[in-house]
Structure to design on (436 residues):
């Protein structure tokens, strides 16, 4: 633990990007207090990944645990900013050197069709709810209690929507196999692939009486963000990425036997007896990277269930300005907010993506910016302080003051006040152990 902490930084959310930032800050002697809305810090790593991602989940849980084990990092659970602590109060009255928003994107991006949300639970479900329900029922050995109907449609694109497609296909095929006394665990079905398992049993989707689900995507298959476009945007590199994306999608489709309708956008809802029974679509074409709707191409597509998987967005918090569906960021590279220079956002809050590696990288990037350019607490400064480790407390404090003459140094009284408030709140919310 930093013996003479010069800075105390709050981080909202302790999962991938938050824990990565916390560890980097803590390594430079900065005291970090993490507020997380759950009792555990793992965020969507724990709640948002389908159950078959067990190795990936454990890999990042271990990484988060390691990051948060740093003695300068303190975790306060069960604290939702905006509910359990007022965000404006946190900014104005707690006295933190900086506040980092790593609270993730927990809210599904709304499907932009008039009145469609009236039919949530009545023919419409959003991705986060579906994945959470599927995981919960699997863990409780109650998969038979859920019944995603055959012939469902998914609106989306990208890796998250492919996970949704897998859930729908695995659950429906698993159900039909069990009816035929073919006892196979759903994780085995996922690992071996639907195609292989059916082939080994002399079956097909048609023989199971299944149509399979259909994924609708607004652009071309090669535009689906299954592999990132490189920084080098030369035509050659771009075409190579397009080929990779199409190959990923083709392999995925062959293994799990779903259908794809690319270059389609939903335009309206179809309702009967107060239930969503399908959507109207128009065809599109991609021109210079833009998606153009083709006139007079609208048609109706009927389905027993519509799953919207078009991304997640951060929940609005009173005191944080919004720019559309995301927080109003002055500069995505630094994560700095438009309305307050001491507040920085990182991970999904900024990127709008659920990609774990992207969140991790952005967490590192923002924490480096906060230390080097906002707090101006350079690595050389901290190394100089460590070199003088044998100094008595007064001399070390004098050195800190000298190093930080023109920087945002917190007075000792303010640091003690922050720690006192954090301890009081942690005790109230059920956290164990004191902050410092």
């Amino acid at each position: 633990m930093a013996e003479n902490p010069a800075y105390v930084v709050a981080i909202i959310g302790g999962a991938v990007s938050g824990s990565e930032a916390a560890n980097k800050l803590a390594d430079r002697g900065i005291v970090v207090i993490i507020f997380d809305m759950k009792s555990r810090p793992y965020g969507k790593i724990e709640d948002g990944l389908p159950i078959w991602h067990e190795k990936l989940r454990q890999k990042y849980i271990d990484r988060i645990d390691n990051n948060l084990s740093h003695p300068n990092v303190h975790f306060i659970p069960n604290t939702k900013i905006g509910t359990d602590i007022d965000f404006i109060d946190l900014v104005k009255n707690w006295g933190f050197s900086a506040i980092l928003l790593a609270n993730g994107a927990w809210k599904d991006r709304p499907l932009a069709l008039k009145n469609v949300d009236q039919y949530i639970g009545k023919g419409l479900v959003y991705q986060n709810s579906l994945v959470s329900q599927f995981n919960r029922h699997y863990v409780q050995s109650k998969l038979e209690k859920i019944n995603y109907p055959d012939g469902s449609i998914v609106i989306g694109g990208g890796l998250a929507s492919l996970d949704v497609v897998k859930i729908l296909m695995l659950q429906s095929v698993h159900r039909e196999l069990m009816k035929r006394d073919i006892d196979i665990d759903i994780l085995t079905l996922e690992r071996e692939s639907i195609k292989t398992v059916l082939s080994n049993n002399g079956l097909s989707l048609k023989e199971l009486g299944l149509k399979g689900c259909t994924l609708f995507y607004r652009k071309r298959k090669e535009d689906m963000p299954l592999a990132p476009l490189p920084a080098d945007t030369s035509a050659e590199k771009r075409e190579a990425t397009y080929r990779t994306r199409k190959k990923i999608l083709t392999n995925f489709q062959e293994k799990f036997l779903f259908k794809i309708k690319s270059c389609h956008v939903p335009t309206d809802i179809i309702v009967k007896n107060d239930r969503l029974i399908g959507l109207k679509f128009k065809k599109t074409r991609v021109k210079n990277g833009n998606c153009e709707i083709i006139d007079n191409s609208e048609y109706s597509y009927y389905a027993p269930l519509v799953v919207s998987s078009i991304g997640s967005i951060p929940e609005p918090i009173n005191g944080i300005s919004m720019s559309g569906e995301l927080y109003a960021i002055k500069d995505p590279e630094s994560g700095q907010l438009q309305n307050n220079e001491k507040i920085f956002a990182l991970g999904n809050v900024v990127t709008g993506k659920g990609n774990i590696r992207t969140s991790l990288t952005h967490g590192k990037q923002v924490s480096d910016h906060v230390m080097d350019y906002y707090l101006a607490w350079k690595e050389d400064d901290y190394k100089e302080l460590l070199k003088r480790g044998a100094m008595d407390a007064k001399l070390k404090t004098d050195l800190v003051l000298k190093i930080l003459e023109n920087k945002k140094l917190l007075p000792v009284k303010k640091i003690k006040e922050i720690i006192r408030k954090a301890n009081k709140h942690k005790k109230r919310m059920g956290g164990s152990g004191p902050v410092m």
In short: The longest helix spans residues 235-256. The CA atoms of residues 189 and 395 lie 65 Å apart.
